[in-house]
Amino acid sequence: MVARFMSLKEAVASCVKDGDTISMEGFTHLIPHAAGHEIIRQGIKNLTLVRMTPDVIYDQLIGAGCAKKLIFSWGGNPGVGSLHRLRDAYEKSWPTKLEIEEHSHAAMANAYDAGAAGLPCAVFKGYRGAELPRVNPNIKFIECPFTGESLAAVPAIRPDVTVVHAQKANKKGDVLFEGIVGVQKEAVLAAKKSIITVEEIVDDFGDISPNAVMLPNWAVTAIVEVPGGAHPSYAQGYYKRDNAFYKAWDPIARDRETFQAWLEEHVINGGPEDFAAKREANKG
Amino acid sequence: MVEYTPTEMMTVSAARALKNDDVCFVGIGMPSAACNLARLTHAPDITLIYESGTIGTKPDVLPLSIGDGELCETAVNTVAVPEMFRYWLQGGKISVGFLGAAQLDKYGNINTTVIGDYDNPKVRLPGGGGAPEIATSCGEVFLVMKQSKRGFVEKIDFVTSLGHGKGGNDRASYGVDTKGPSRLITDLCIMEPHPEGKQFVVTSIHPGVTREEIIENTGWDVEFADEVAETAIPSEKELQVLRELHARTAKAHGDQQ
């Protein structure tokens, strides 16, 4: 099955179901915000959200009541502070109870790699002398059968759906990522289905390195053109990170009322077409 | 007379700890300022690595997040995050990890997870991120943190990342063969681990700071080395470069509204 071009509405409706485990990745760069908003608009619930660095996008999904569980390794608004919606859900069960499963970055990066590689678990030199293994039963230690060395093991990440953003797709549906590529390729290959939003669809990629990170069309489920779809994150070559928005998010998310008003105005009454203007505003 | 703040003294002292041939894994916040100050002064060839996968990056402004575009655009190369953690960090290619903390004990064990109980925390912090493995896989670890009784405690609430464990050879008992925290730079002084016990000992005091101030701002019984040095004040060049870096950063992060 090769990738199908769809509207964002159609892509989310056909790929994401209540109760799914979904991974929306992007390490500061290329975070699929427009797709996150569509999941909120469609009222999808009881999701297990997986992401190394849950930041503003997961704060929004959690505050909107889409999540029952979060699997993560660093939860914060980078350089700004706490995620107030995440904390409200975890500490006060608003709007619903949120369970957490916490790892280190090395563990999650290895777990995505294991998922993509078809392995049941990831094995690595990690968590030595650290306390997370005491509170997370999904961290165990195994003995190397050859050297006897003790190694950490965590389950592979196998999302039902991975959602990521990329710079370009070509007309055939092959996808090109450039810049900080994070764990996007691994997360897509580890998942049963994938939605990739892109800045633009081009006839062909032109003169790119044969080693440029690309997913062939048969490895992707749905492709959606959403210019500016990563905002307030960024797409290298298209627009810069809107650091001012990340700072502005802190007071918006701090109390329930301002958050709900923001959600109503920008998500419930918004749409993917709103992101193109954000792209223009953050060129430069 | 050169004027400077305690934070500037701390950042300058932290930068001086780095060498031109170091390969340094940079934590966000205070370490990032110190590492880039080193690069812009005495260590122009230093390799700075951020966990977003950027290797040999030379940002003109400090990143707000560890994955800002500036880091990738100025890097020698950018690799995927699994490669960063598996080959470069776990593979032992990095000489220094530079970390901050929310809570720290006298053995350099770090808490960035929770204040209070894990299941019912008083304050939920962002979590470990890359730190648990940075702390054990880098050749050595430098720590930079403002000194306070709340942050420098006898017992941390959660061991996010291993330092010297319970002291002595405890670190090695976890199968860790790297050096661990070898320097702690604060806004008051510099501490280094005791050669045997591994508890932090004050080895250099910043000019104008008293021993009493250090004791008042530390939650454990402070030990002073037999010979305590006075930290050299920041040079005009160091201060100028640091202030210009902060000014460029503020402009870059504030002018997009």
From TrEMBL, chain A:
SUPFAM superfamilies: NagB/RpiA/CoA transferase-like. Pfam families: CoA_trans. Its EC number is 2.8.3.12. GO terms for molecular function: glutaconate CoA-transferase activity. SMART domains: CoA_trans. Signal peptide: none annotated. InterPro entries: CoA_trans_fam_I (IPR004165), NagB/RpiA_transferase-like (IPR037171). Keywords: Transferase. It comes from the Bacteria. Gene3D superfamilies: 3.30.30.40, Glutaconate Coenzyme A-transferase. This is Glutaconate CoA-transferase subunit A.
From TrEMBL, chain B:
It is an enzyme of class 2 (transferase). Keywords: Transferase. Gene3D superfamilies: Glutaconate Coenzyme A-transferase (3.40.1080.10). Signal peptide: none annotated. InterPro entries: CoA_trans_fam_I, NagB/RpiA_transferase-like. Its EC number is 2.8.3.12. One of its GO terms (molecular function) is glutaconate CoA-transferase activity. It holds the Pfam family CoA_trans. This is Glutaconate CoA-transferase subunit B.
